[in-house]
Amino acid sequence: MPSFEKVKYRPVPVRDLFLEMKNLSELMIDLAYSAALFNDRELAEDIFELENRVDTLDYLLEMTLMIAARDAHDAEALAGVSAVASAADKISDAAADIAAIVTQNIGVHPIVSQVFEKVEERLMQAKVSGESSLVGKRVGELDLAARMGVDIIALRRDKDWIINPQKTEHIRGGDILIVRGVYSGIKEFKKMAEQK
Amino acid sequence: MSQGNEARFEEIVERLVELKDTSELMIDLAYSSLFLKSRDLAEEVQRLEEHVDKLHTDFELLVLQSEFKKEEARGFLGLIRLGVATEKIADAAAQISEVVLRGIEPHPVLQLSIREAEETVAYVSIAKDSPLANKTLLEARIPEETGMWILAIRRGNKSVRPKPDTKIEVGDVLIASGYAEGVEDLKKLSKR
């Protein structure tokens, strides 16, 4: 049985909640296809984590909407927000369904992955070791796009996810980076991040 | 795998790629319909939803009709599951566009920036003599020349998600967003 976190109301602007749900659910779709097509368990596990996070955000958003509605006019407008948020939640569910193809050992027929390998960039996660040369560097100074055709599209630090980290963000040991790029580039980057 | 089956397999992969691309395009268009308050875009999403439903059924039938070996069953189940997920994503996009089509006055939190509220959506079709014809989107430099952003390309009954290497063809309908001034510039480029 999975454990479910009790969601306690705290005041967060609806726009922030909504934007985070939108961004996370879109990231999850990209992660999910990469996980399924390249049978990447690490990515699949990240997706389940993110799915939990989106669920929590959805609860918080619904609570906030309920408090925000003062009259019929508010309720009409906010019902639209609720419908859009639940669509973002549905998208994250679909991503988790794709991730489950990997974790349930079903897999996708290799002929499909071969085709995608040619046309799609791939996503991968890399865990930054304490000894890595990346530690203490800012995302911008690494110049990854020019050097190896790699982009850091998300960063996980403990329970927090940072989507599209800013150039000034410092990388720390223990960070989990989600990178996108050509296979050779991300492979090289993963080695750099995980060096002991 | 036999030779006839190989051709069938190519078709399966092709349909899956189209399902994936279309469902992702729908998400982009659905949010755009919301942020730009565009009924036209919302209707486009609904139209694509019907297309995806059909495509998905075709895809599933193709998978079931392929003569896969027993040991390939898991891989084929994975394909079916992927297809179901694309359908779910398309449904979610349709749900977003429905908010626009129901005429619910979008709440301010659903407007990301003031800029977007002032933009319009334009449809321009590419004439035979257009300088854009047969160029890739990267070569066409439409955002630089007109300030317009390409949201989707309608080609026959399909819609293509714009990528830098997507080639613009004669007869394509470009769906673009931007300020009103840019619409005129884009229209000029599409004719000539």
Description:
The complex is a heterodimer of chains A (196) and B (192). With 196 residues, chain A is of the alpha+beta class. Chain A folds into two domains: 14-103, Methane Monooxygenase Hydroxylase, Chain G, domain 1 (Up-down Bundle), CATH 1.20.58; 121-194, Regulator of K+ conductance, C-terminal domain (Alpha-Beta Plaits, 2-Layer Sandwich). In chain A, 57% of the residues lie in helices and 12% in strands. In chain A, strands 1-4-2-3 form a four-stranded antiparallel beta sheet, with helices on both faces. In chain A, α1 packs antiparallel against α2 (41-68), α1 (14-37) runs parallel beside α3 and α2 (41-68) packs antiparallel against α3. Chain A starts with 13 loop residues before the first helix and ends with a helix. Chain B is α+β, with helices and mostly antiparallel strands and 192 residues long. Chain B has two domains: 3-108, Methane Monooxygenase Hydroxylase, Chain G, domain 1 (Up-down Bundle); 119-190, Alpha-Beta Plaits, CATH 3.30.70.1450. Helices cover 59% and strands 11% of the residues of chain B. In chain B, α1 packs antiparallel against α2 and α1 (3-35) packs parallel to α3. The radius of gyration of chain B is 19 Å and the shape is flat. The model of chain B has no long low-confidence stretch (mean pLDDT 90). Chains A and B meet through α1, α3 and α4 of A and α1 and α3 of B.
Labels describing this entry:
heterodimer; A: 196 residues; alpha+beta; Methane Monooxygenase Hydroxylase, Chain G, domain 1; Alpha-Beta Plaits; 4-stranded antiparallel β-sheet; 6 helices; B: 192 residues; 2 domains; flat
Q: Compute the separation of the termini of chain A in Å.
A: 35 Å
CATH fold-type name of the largest domain in chain B? Methane Monooxygenase Hydroxylase, Chain G, domain 1
- CATH homologous superfamily placement of the largest domain in chain B: Phosphate transport system protein phou homolog 2, domain 2
> Helical residue percent of chain B?
55-70%
- Poorly predicted runs of chain B are none
β-sheet strand percentage of chain A = 5-15%
Helix proportion of residues of chain A, in percent?
55-70%
Mean pLDDT of chain A: 90
Tally of domains of chain A: 2
**Average of per-residue pLDDT values of chain B:** 90
Whole-Å distance between the termini of chain B? 51 Å
How is the main sheet of chain A built? Answer: 4 strands, antiparallel
Largest sheet geometry of chain B: 4 strands, antiparallel
CATH homology group of the largest domain in chain A: Phosphate transport system protein phou homolog 2, domain 2
Backbone shape of chain A: globular
